Amino acid sequence: MSVATLNGRDLLSMADLSVAELRDLLDLAIDLKAKKLNPRCEKILGLLFTKASTRTRVSFSAAMYQIGGQVLDLNVNVTQVSRGEPVEDTARVLDRYLDVLAIRTYEQQELETFARYAKIPVINALTDLEHPCQVLADLQTIKEEFGQLDGLTLAYVGDGNNMANSLMLGCALSGMNVRVAAPAGFEPNAGVLEQAKAIAGDRTEVTLTQDAQAAVQGAQIVYTDVWASMGQEDLADSRIPVFMPYQVNEDLMNKADSKAIVLHCLPAHRGEEITNGVIEGNQSRVWDEAENRLHAQKALLVSVLGVE
Predict the structure, then answer these.
(1) DSSP character string of 92-123
(2) Which of these, 16, 128, 153, 236, could form a disulfide with 219 (CB 3.0-4.6 Å)?
(3) Domain range 14-130+294-305, CATH class
(4) What pTM value is reported for the model?
(5) Is 134 a catalytic residue?
(6) Residue 133 among the catalytic residues
(7) How many angstroms separate the CA atoms of 258 and 220, rounded?
(8) Which helix (H) or strand (E) holds 288?
(9) pLDDT in tens, the chain (308 residues)
(10) Has 27 been annotated as catalytic?
(11) Smallest Cα–Cα separation from 138: which of 169, 100, 102?
């Protein structure tokens, strides 16, 4: 396996990957986790995060340190970004200091502008549209559990947010069926849905429904996320009555495959989108999933930096 598959490339969306590239990244992540490889580099990763972060910030930092690189945490509040410096200018300057840049922000367009003006690899560490790094860890976790991805069915239940968008693309690329159950008015991005269906073709199914129980029926993976994402906290209480039929609880899990696992990208609001019994139960793989952020992002960094 070549670890330089994505050498010099950006990762702005799951759709930036081919079927083969996704497969190679997941295999590389699993090998790195098993310590079968020991890639080393002397590169610098910049983290430019507008949104709060625990797992993304720590896993990217730990991953870079573990392969011998350095990390600069570029707090936007103490950079000229907070004073209105144009994205284009910041991108061209950081391009001359860093080897790779991970950005966590609101608008996908801002990320794309950075990528257009910076020659170094730019990684989407989360936008309101997508969260591809999380999905790499999710798919790694599923592959470790079931030994394969082809033919499995993932049911995503809840808000049609960035996680739903990236999961649709990731499942389509990996040969998995994906069913998204969301209330009316909270569906995933229509353009991403059509893109995922085009990637899936006749190989897999990408479906959208308002019926959580129908989505989960017989599924091997049940996935959920918070009902109000970052920047929507003031809407959280008003959304609870709308989303309560989409709670991942013991009754809903009884509709899934008997060997089904539960995933959640965290942080979780226990008692809202998921019950304490489910997230702490024997079907939960949430903590393995969180750990795999480290290994999946290490694989991504090794790949885009062309580290041998």
Answers:
(1) HHHTTT-SEEEEE-S-HHHHHHHHHH--S-EE
(2) 153
(3) alpha beta
(4) 0.96
(5) yes
(6) no
(7) 8
(8) helix 286-305
(9) 446 689 999 999 999 999 999 999 999 999 999 999 999 999 999 999 999 899 999 999 999 999 999 999 998 777 777 677 899 999 999 999 999 999 999 999 999 999 999 999 999 999 999 999 999 999 999 999 999 999 999 999 999 999 999 999 999 999 999 999 999 999 999 999 999 999 999 999 999 999 999 999 999 999 999 998 877 777 778 899 999 999 999 999 999 999 999 999 999 999 999 999 999 999 999 999 999 999 999 999 999 999 98
(10) no
(11) 169
- Contact between 303 and 3 (Cβ < 8 Å): yes
CB–CB of 192/171 below 8 Å? no
Residue 265 bears catalytic tag: yes
β-strand 70-73 against 153-157: which pairing, if any? Answer: unpaired
Structure tokens at 293: 């952020």
Annotated catalytic residue, options 41, 133, 171, 265: 265
The first and second tokens of residue 235, run together, are 């809407």
Tokens 């001359």 correspond to 96
CATH number 3.40.1550.10 given to 134-289:
no
Of the candidates 104, 179, 239, 285, the residue annotated as catalytic is 104
The answer to whether 131 is a known catalytic residue is yes
CA dihedral 227, 228, 230, 231 (to 10 degrees): 170
Catalytic site includes residue 23: no
Domain boundaries, the chain: 14-130+294-305, 134-289
Of these residues, 23, 41, 133, 134, which one is catalytic?
134
- Is it true that 14-130+294-305 and 134-289 share their CATH fold? yes
**Annotated catalytic residue, options 133, 293, 295, 297:** 293
Contact 100, 297 (CB under 8 A): no
